[in-house]
């Protein structure tokens, strides 16, 4: 412990900072192994992207290099304690915030200068405007002459726009030069926010959905009628206790804490697993975003509910797998507030939205589901889940009005309904770095 405290102090010495600046250059050079005359862009927090980077790398006129997450973790060691304790005030425009962030920016200016000079970095790419780790490094990069581009992956429902603006506007963030949004609602919210005044905001759509949209359009054009099979595939896109409750309180509700959508989570998962147990012709996939306590919680709830240690053999819980492949193979999808609900809605299959327990009680005024009712089936009680699944699996036919509503909700909440090519995106980036 004493050594670590000593090490943190040593890392703040000017000589060590300058030494580390060349270490940063060396590590990134070894990872990329070459320098050419292309326009170089630096990817911040590469682990936060979802397939966008490999697509952008197809452009021969741009060269993208990543700032490794582990390297950034090492460089932030001198400020680790301050950053952890700054959660409540880091984005507030206060004297305390300014002092901390000025120190970090000055620190990164020294660290980044050799890297930016060697590669002549013209732009940086981030995955959000609200990542603490990216804010100071991006500000230092802007001071060194690079443009800041953000791919806003966070989507929002139409009813969340005003709350989002109220919650985030006024924060002290590094203003991007260019913001790419995926859906109409996010674009509307950002266009109204004062902190992004002057930034160029383009609703470009989702790069990762291009192949999926292409398949959907091809499927619709062919008007192919799928053969009925005895084995039915149900995909349940799981959720956390704090799903869509971002603006309910500050500090926010934890993903799996002591409050939030506890009963909705427990009752929906237990009843859906029970349905699969009763029906051997059902293959159920429960898709989560990560594993660990998420998977454990589902299994523990099932044990308490059924007294069965193991899940039924036809039930699989996974954080892995291609979401779009799952949707294309599904006969029915069950979801809460998620873009996957809208993505599944592009297919001519039934989609069930969960609307019971806390959603109809404690958080009823917070969440507006009127737009969902126009496009998807609503399960109002967990006791109705079995009947609802049977009903929609046995017969479902989409009409023109439902199709139109589903396409509209997809564009509002998920992405524009067109194939986005990497050249559409990189062209806009090249425009701002000229």
Describe this structure in words.
The chain has helices spanning 2-10, 14-32, 52-56, 69-75, 80-85, 95-119, 132-143, 161-168, 184-192, 210-222, 262-278, 293-306, 323-329, 339-344, 370-373, 385-394, 400-413, 422-433, and strands spanning 39-43, 62-66, 121-126, 147-152, 178-181, 200-203, 232-237, 282-287, 315-318, 332-335, 351-354, 377-379. It is α/β, with parallel strands linked by helices and 434 residues long. The strands form two sheets. The chain has a six-stranded parallel beta sheet, sandwiched between helices. Strands 9-8-7-10-11-12 form a six-stranded parallel beta sheet, sandwiched between helices. It is globular. Helix 2 (14-32) crosses helix 6 (95-119), helix 8 (161-168) packs across helix 9 and helix 11 (262-278) crosses helix 12. Strand 5 (178-181), helix 9 (184-192) and strand 6 form a beta-alpha-beta unit. The chain folds into two domains: 2-205 and 419-433, Rossmann fold, CATH 3.40.50; 210-413, Glycogen Phosphorylase B (Rossmann fold, 3-Layer(aba) Sandwich). The protein has 18 helices and twelve strands. It starts with a helix and ends with a helix.
